[in-house]
Amino acid sequence: MLQSINQLMEYSVATGYLMNNMGYLVVAGGLSYNLPQLFKLKSEAGYTVRAGIMSVASLSIIPAAMVVPEAYPMGLKMVAWGCCFIAGVAFTTYGARKLQAKFSLLFSRFTVKSSVRRGSKTDIRYMAKELPTIPNYNPLKFVNLKKGFFIGLDEQVKPIYLKNMDDWYKRHFLIVGATRSGKGVAMQYLGIQSLMLGETVIFLDPKGDKYMPHIFKEQCDKLGVPYTFIDLTQDVPQINLIADFKSRDLKNCLVESFSQREMGSESDVYRKNEQEFLENLANFICEQNSGLECSAKSLTELCRDYDLSRYADKYKSSVSDLNKLCNIASINAANGKSLSELVAGGGCVYIVGDLLDETMKKIQRFILCRVVQLARNYSNAADRSGAKEQNITVFADELVAHISRFVAESYTVSLGWGLKIVSAIQDLKLLRGAPTDLDPEFLKGAVFGNSQNKLFYRADDIDTADYLSDMTGKIQIEEEQKIVTRNSLNSEKLDKQTRLTQSERNYFDRNMILNLKQFEAVFCSALSYRSTIASLCKTSPVKVNDAVNGKELIKLIEASDYESNENNQPNRKHHQTFEIPQTNTLNGEHHADNNQSSTSGTSGSSQNQKASTSKSDYLF
Predict the structure, then answer these.
(1) What is the number of domains present in the chain?
(2) 92 shares its domain with 234
(3) Which of 31, 316, 443, 536 is most buried, by the most CB atoms less than 10 A from its CB?
(4) What is the CA angle 360-362-365, rounded to 5?
(5) Of 94-103, 320-329, 334-343, which range is least confident?
(6) What range defines the domain where residue 165 resides?
(7) Cα(183)–Cα(352) distance, integer angstroms
(8) How many CB atoms sit inside 10 A of residue 547's CB?
(9) Distance CA 417, CA 245 (A)
(10) Are 278 and 308 in contact (CB under 8 A)?
């Protein structure tokens, strides 16, 4: 009975307190709950939650009021309530403007995405996730010509092979990339494999690579094939540039190296005069050399015999260029080998030029033009004799330093002559540095359009990166569009709904091309046995043997030793005799064909008559 009385008294005290403070409770709860409406703020999905939190915060004065005597001043109770109410407003405001957006972003990261999504656009800030890291390796461990022609390792660290050898023999190869990105590294083992296939390798190096000559020399020694190193920048007689020529071929080489092609402009009338002068000079040179038994005269000697200075006023451009060539000792060795002899001998001919010397560029253009002519002549001779065609691979580093219009036009037909060009360029803008008679757009179309095998390294030029990216093809992706809403306190948050729209991007887009690491590239080629046209490709350098010296200059043939060696040397007249090397298929061995196809020579009296031809026959 006493316990029941005590409980009744407790209830009556609480009831009395609530009755006395009912007005306060109603005002506190109602004001806090309807605060957004009082300030005409927009109601939203989170309004009820925030208003509830504000109500609880404003009513937190009740526990404190329960222990305060009834007689305590009502004003102090209202002050305490106001503090609690303000704290609730501050908390809910911070939560609406800051915490809600952060929680929304956090929850979006844990979203389980649908399997219908197919790829996405790349972000240049997170390219490490898009491009896997492939370790360095020894490329010679993967060289196996029975499996195919090795290109590099893909993103699964599996070797990329050209399984069908025609994909190597019958396709030009283009390598594009910025300085120090790895273009020369790819050329190292591409050239090694080319030698293993028995091809004749002509390496045109305008910069003087530090390691390449030693690597090629070592491989030639292993295969037992000739290796010739020529440094055009050295003031030492090494080759005879104008020996073993037909007059028409010599004239074309001079015209191409001096950039005297017609351009469809008013200046063509002068160019035609220059061409006519060079044609007469070529006739004189070939007639003079045709009667020599031991060694041909050099360009310096023949220009002196032709009295070149007499034409300096009328043909200033050509005479000036010829005088510059006459001052280059490396190409004016009267008893030196000709390019025809070197190419016919097989193996590797390594030629160093100078990217910064205009005269050297003219010589480099002359040499590449001559190699194309020789490939055509060898192919025609092989067709007539029924011999096996000689395969020639030209490695043209910094292609613009060697290119001419004749070579650019030959891209479409040279593969039929057994000539393949592995060219390397840095970016598209450098194509503008081609000779003036060669349009950069035409050059781009000739090289890029006819090089079916392409290796793209890092590009520092935006236009080049976009162009290379377009060549990798398109893929379909699901582009995500997120909806953002604003709450009553003008704070944005991600909506729960996400919209997916079908879109596309380049397989390897601009961000990827710009962020390729050193020695990493994109191999692009349409091959029936590969699932994609493009794939990530890691190349790696070949180890250099320091004991091998690949920079020993070519030795001249002494005139006194010519008769004793002539039986072991191919005839100097390339238009009379052709040596067609025989090549094995996949074992890397190289065999030279001892059979030569030749036409009957002219009689001694006719040779003497040609040798005595007067220079006046070639004057205007």
Answers:
(1) 2
(2) no
(3) 443
(4) 110
(5) 94-103
(6) 139-472+507-538
(7) 17
(8) 7
(9) 19
(10) no
